[in-house]
Every structure is written in C-alpha cells, then in structure tokens.
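Fold this sequence, please.
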Amino acid sequence: MSEPIAIPDRLNMVTFFLDDRIAEGKGDQIALVHSDLRAGGDVAAATTTTRTYRELVAGSCRVTGALRELGLGIEDRVQLLLLDTPEWVEAYFGVLRAGCIAVPTNTWLQPKDYAYYLEYARPKAVIVDAEVWPALAPVFRDAPYTRHFIVLDRARRPVPEGTHDWHALVGRQPDVATTEPTWRDDFSTWLSSSGSTGNPKCVMHMHHDFVWNTVAYAQRTLQLRGSDRTLSAPKLFFGYALASNMLFPFSVGGSCVLVHERLEASDYLALIEQHRVTQFVTVPTNIAKLTALEDTQRHDLGSLHSLVSAGEALPPRLYHDFKARYGVEIYDGIGSAEMFHVYITNRPGDVKAGSLGRLVEGYRYRLIDDDDKPVGPGEMGTLVIEGPSAGAGYWRMRDKSRETFWGDAVKGGDKFIVDDEGYFWYCGRGDDMLKCSGVYVSPVEVEDCLLGHPAVHEAGVVGHRDEAGLEKVMAFVELEQGVEGTAALAEELIAFARSRIAAFKAPRRIEFTTLPRTDTGKIRRAALREKAGGA
C-alpha cells in the first residue's frame, strides 16, 4: 500500500499544477506545443507555437488581472468556450488563480444549448473563441446573469459589439497576480456530464479532487514522468482530456500537444511522430479508426509507449488488432465526471484484454442489485464507486444529486462483473441493459460477439418488444466497407451469435445501418432504442 495522499487545507490547484514547476527550476521548459493546421491542412505544414511553464504562469496572471478588472472574484463562475489553443490553458488557470470557478463547455453545441448553460450555470463571464461565437451570438443578449463576454479572435479582427476584446483586455494586464488563497474544499471547476439523457448536469468539484486523483491515477498508477508528452483526441472541454492532456503532464513537469481542429485518424499518427508524443489519450472509436487505416503510409511511433482509453469498454478484438499492428500497449479504464476521472484501469505491467482493469488505489467499490442490496461473488451488479475525488453533487439538481452521490460514493448506471482476481468486466449501462427471459443481458457482450464476425465493423445492441410485448435483443450493425447487407447475411449473423453466446442473448433481429454517435464517439443508444421502437 502506498502512503496516504496528503492534501493541505490551503490549496489553489494552480500552485500544484503550474506554479510549482517554477519553484522546481522548470520555468524555461516547454509545457505546451500547439499545432495549428489552419482548417484541415497537412500536419507537416502546420504552424507550431510553444509555451514554457514561465510563459503559462505569466499568461494566466494576465487573465486573472483581466477578470479582477471586470469585478470578478472568488466563487464567481466563468464559462470557457475556447478551442484547444494556448489561450485555453491560460484562461483556465487564470480563472482559478482569481478564485473563480471554471465551467468548461462543449464548443460543438447549438444556440439553444448555450442559452440553457447561461441560465443554468449562471456564469458571470464567458470567454469564447471567435470561431464558436456564431453559435452563442443569437442568445448572448438574453443571458440573465452574464455581465461580460470576452471574445478571443486569434486573427485579431474586431470583436462583436457589446463584448470585450481578449487581446486588448488581457494584453494590458501585468504578468504577475496574487493567487487567491483558496481552501481545498473551495469549488474550482464544474464538469459537465455527457447529457445523454437530457440537458447537461454540472458536477461541482473542489480543488482537492483534481490533485488527489492526479496523484493516485496519473502519477502512481500510470506512472507519468517529466519526460512524457501527451496528445489527446478528445478536446479539453471534456474532463477526460482536461486532466489527461493538461493537468496530468503538468503535474510532473511534462508537456502536452494541443490541436484545436477536428482531425482524421491518420493525422494523429503524424502528430505523434512529429512531436515525439509518448502517451496518446483517446477513445475506442478512434482506436478502431486507427486499426482500419490502410497501411499505405508508415509513421515512426517509436516515442509512443502507451495509449490511454476510456469512454466505453474496448472490445478484446480491437485491443489485439491494434497492438498487433502498432506494437503499443493500451491502458483501458473507466471514470466519470461525477468522480472527476478514471478510478478503474489497466496499467503498466498489468493489462487483461477485454477488462477495464483493477481499482486505482484509494478507491473502494461495491456492486448492488436493483434493490440496492450487495450481489454475490461473480454476479452482475451496478457499480457504486467510493473515493476522495467525488464531486459534491450536481448544481441545482437536489433530487438527482441525492440519487447519485452518497457521501464520497457515486452510484452510476454502469453494470459490472468482478472476477476472482479483481478485474472489472463492463456489462453496459443500467438503462441500456436488457432483461430477456427474466435475466439481464449485457448489450456489450452481444456486440463483442458480433464483432467477431469478419463482416461486422461495429454493432449497437438494444431491446425491442416482440408481438407478446416481451423484450428481445435487436442489433444494429455497421458493416465493413464493401460488404452488402442482405437478409441472408442477417440470418448468418444471428446463427453466428447463437453459436457463441447463450441463445436467449443472441439478437432476434438485425438491421444494417450507420450507427449514430455522440460528440465523444459513443454510440447513441437512446437513438437506437427509439429506432427499434418504431421498427
């Protein structure tokens, strides 16, 4: 067992993640590399800029000065609608240095979504990239609580009327600022849940939560070092990337690569080679795309020692295919906005393909049934995860908070089986689980089975009601390129599944389609359930 993680009472996480690097003599070390592809250009021709730790500290201090000039202070909320550029990092740490609360927000939303956030989160200020502004413009004047909109136009064009120009406002501030002496239990960042079942929920996290998980997961479990350089496919507004591609490497004096454009899978390989990335942060969907790339252009991935994967379980076939092709280890795990980050994971020297690994030290768990009673050994149950990084609840959602947060424990909707060696096997979401013949069926198990057929590229499994109103398994299948979806193939896939899993788990119906996905690449099961209901 490792030594307990000691968090001081007085804590502003800016000091832990950024300022301490100056005290360690790493001020002139590169902390950040930004690759600007200019709207989908060639990676090799991208414009590259860097920031040292000293420059990031100075930039964050200028943001702190700007917020204080506008009258913002401790506990005021600041929404970040920025792309993955150096200014994102400076703004985030500048907000926290001022004692304010950062609210990172998805930059791919619609005006109605931003109107919701402006009323729900009640930010006193919004910092927004000019590229995102068109989606905010229709609703910003109706914002009931927001007093200041700060627009970052990286091309330095005039900003819209009624807003502040980032360059003018931030540029006139000194590069030093007093760090608000917050406490470990002061709120620092509100992370958004995925919103897959409705409007997003803001999880209220304290300074303490980020530091504790960083030590437990990034430093002790993944063993990140100062020589590491990370790159992430998800963007910084996701808590997953905010930590994995900024906080984690900064905590050990490493560096990160930021790209604000959306990329093709092959672009990531080029970036890894160009910037000598050591750890790539991604999701299973992107791993599938990398595995499916034509082997026409080889990249030197010699610097890369691992991939970190989360978001959904990684099928064993995909794990083996990727590792066979690229020779790089994958640490698949699971976390949540409610617990800030990953709490169960595979790790260096300890990977079991198809599982999500073992508990990160310091977390505890139990599996419960539908009546909140413990399940027996080897039985499937809903995960209740407990640990010091749990959020305080959802903002302005009392009933939902009490349903989900049980002190330092979080009851999610994920169902697992834990084997005799302590490895967790993901079975699906509670609201995705199917109950056929009185027995729970994991959609993930059926999907993994179908993925074993060479014609299947990906599958999404949901329930549908038969003539008697009983729930049966239905599979929506995305085929490999060039394969035709015929009735004969559908029957072949059903027989294939029946030969490999229990008959009651095999799909009764197959529909060939392109699977709908969320912004993070997850299959939108709600859309598939709706489609199955009308089929």
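Residues 287 and 295 are 15 Å apart (CA to CA). The first strand starts at residue 30 and ends at 36.
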